[in-house]
Amino acid sequence: MRLAAAVLVITCHTSPLAGVSVVGDLLTRIVALVAVPFYFMATGLFTLSQYHCDNRRLKGFMKKIGTIYAASVLLYLPLNIYRDYFNRPNLLPNLLRDLVFDGTVYHLWHLTAAMLGLAIVWRLVEKLDYPKGLAVAAVLYLVGLFGDSYYGIVGRLPVVKKFYDLLFQLFDYTRNGIFFAPIFLMLGGYMAEQKPRLTKWWNWAGSASGVVLMFTEGMLLHQYVIPRHDSMCLMLPICMVFLFRGLLRFRGREVRGLRTAARVIYLVHPMVIVAEITHLEALLVKSNLVYFVAVCVISFLFGFAVAALWWRFAVKQKHLAETERAYIELDLASLAYNAAILQAAMPQGSELMAVVKANAYGHGDYEISTHLEKNGVKAFAVATIEEGIRLRCYGIRGIILILGYTDIHRAKELKQYAHLKQLWAAGLS
């Protein structure tokens, strides 16, 4: 799907059906809308969680994407010099706006939006949890929607238009890290912690229906000349929920280098577009389809070449079993199964309390406690107040029983960390 998303982005930038049919061109542009939301939802799936004890995962993501973004800015620096980018009036504020919101080249907005959006939703999940955080993200998306595809409606309301005019002094588009990215990052993270409720056929039927409704929405918007831009539409989040849930049902082996290749294709294809226009302008103007195919082929060749070199020379981590005498291998599915068997055997009115003291007896209190809570265990026992606080910082919201002694002077901390549910100290003096 990463490769497919990269192709869809190229489709959006080359308009392969523009010379064939207006309806066909609009359809390809609307289908291509799912590409960047897919990237954001995949980011949320692997990065965002209500269970986190500190900001290391967030900082790691910022460092990684920030490095890619900085390298991309440098990659396109010659192109921006060629375009007289640095001779524009008000260079410094425009440069800051592009670096933070719009991207120094059009497609780089995705990277800066991912960083800004993740910083926002990380705090939303931390402070509000998923349902309320998702509601805030939805409101932000609706605000952005009226600065994008539905801007024509705003233009008829002077007071509201002034608000958006102020926004557009800060950035060129509302499809950015504030209004566009949060809802898809939040949905991706939410799906990582929720069990599927629909069959795969319902997911694909929902995806197909979503595309049809998106196309209908896009046709109506363009017919009445409402959009200021066309990256956001009302049906897009709904369509992405079904599509992404359907994709999550696939399980298979990781194809080595595929993710790296897809990332490189996304980053370099505008450079290929510029090269193609420079050398084959006469042919490409006659056929957008040839233009599209040429950009795809060259971008793919370059992307997979870089991926092969990366895997050839990058330092690879060995499995712990190859370097240490002893290691722990966790089967979380078996853990959840065993907990379910115990819960089923308990008398009515009883609840299972998982004892996770001493770092879950060396198995990892984070991994054990978060997985058990996802699977219905709502009570945990620890040895010390420090262990209980650590569970709270992971995001555990159930009852926490402290089995050991807790000094009376730490009663304030008990109250502080008991706000989510209950923090009991059995040995409080």
Describe the overall structure.
66% of the residues lie in helices and 5% in strands. It has helices at 2-14, 22-31, 35-47, 56-75, 77-82, 91-102, 109-145, 151-154, 158-170, 181-192, 200-223, 236-248, 258-286, 288-313, 320-323, 332-345, 357-361, 365-374, 385-394, 411-417, and strands spanning 353-355, 379-382, 399-406, 423-428. Strands 1-2-3-4 form a four-stranded parallel beta sheet. Helix 16 crosses helix 18 (365-374). The protein is globular and about 75 Å long. The N and C termini lie far apart (58 Å). The model is unreliable at 421-429 (pLDDT under 50).
Strand content: under 5%
Instruction: Note the total helix count.
Output: 20
Report the radius of gyration as a whole number of Å.
Answer: 25 Å
Number of strands: 4
Q: Name the quaternary structure.
A: single chain
